[in-house]
Amino acid sequence: MITTTSTSTSTSYVKDLSEIPNLKKPQETFVDDPDSLQDVNLEELIFDLKNEIKDINNLHIYHSIFILSKCIQFIIKLQEFPDLFLKFRNQQLNKLGIKQQDNLHATNSSDSIASDVSFRSTSPPPSLPITSASFKIPSNNLKPNKLRNTDFKIDLSTVLSKSESDLDTLNSPKAISELISPSEEFESLYDDNIDDIIYDDPNYDEIEWLETPHYIPIEKLIETTDLSKSQSQTLKLSDINLDKLKDEILNHQPQNKHLLKIFNLLKTPNVTIDQFLIRIKTYSPSISTSSYLHSAFLLYKLIIYLNNIELTLNNSFRFTVASIRCSTKVIEDVYQKQSIFSNVVGVNLKDLFKIEMGFLYLINFNLIISELLLNHFLTNEFLDLCSFMKENLPDEYQEISITRK
Q1: What's the whole-model pTM score?
Q2: Within a 10 A sphere around the Cβ of 166, how many other Cβ atoms?
Q3: CA-CA distance, 362 to 209, in Å (whole number)?
Q4: 3-state secondary structure of 199
Q5: Which InterPro entries has this protein been placed in (predicted)?
């Protein structure tokens, strides 16, 4: 006889999605690349950067252009409110460990040094002393100490007794060749093979070179090697880059205001920043993603950290041109002619050169940025700028975040 038992099951529902534990980080799967700036959503990009789904190595070029565009527009709008701009700048400096008093003290000291002409030197820096080695000269009669201590006396009567014919023999080709050519005793000094030189080192011990080098067992290498330290080493390298940035902020010298004149336009163009960047991308396709991100960080550092310029809609176009052009020349392998790029951005060659040089002086010629620092900019500074704008200027944030054709 077969008996059946019925079991009752109860179904439970989760009321809040936050109750589900997050076992692993979200991952991007089968997502189409954007075909235009309109396909890039700011909130989605912020989420991807915050959760490390995207970084400098997997961003699309439209993402980098979008980040550069929003950085420029957010900063322009933020500088229209000086109190908010100062508040945000102090927040960023505090994250680097720079207090407002330290920044003011460094700025005042750099002003005094830059204004005092007496501190500037036009002479080249002193060269380091040349390290010389003493050589063993084969002949015992020619010792440097003996030559140095010998008293050379010239007998004038002997010189005057020489006839003109005897003096003319010095002008003969044979005599000149004997004077020019070195003697055999100093042949080792003129030998191209530096391995033949014998250094006069009393502490030199030839037995050390004959010993067998120390061998490290593989078992000891396995015990002392820890691959898990790679993350800590990455953090250490990141701290080093941030320390360099901190030193640059504290020690930078403000530049003269006349450098800003070349960036001002007589009339503001009837195009948006987005349209201008798309034009550059269309007619200069060799510019990579890294160049646009590099350009965004340079402008951010120049305005927020160094506080050297006031970015407006009028001068933002030429600052964008200068930052992209300098970034391209520094990190790109593909070379693009000045004449072609000047036609793309609508600037003549003479003004393009002045724009680049003015930007270099404003940035103190510090163009090299590491990959770790760029990733830190994406996951920290850019996200801080977006969140600050969203919190303090919500209407402007919504207006700028939407990319229009």
Answers
A1: 0.63
A2: 9
A3: 54
A4: strand
A5: Cyclin_PHO80-like
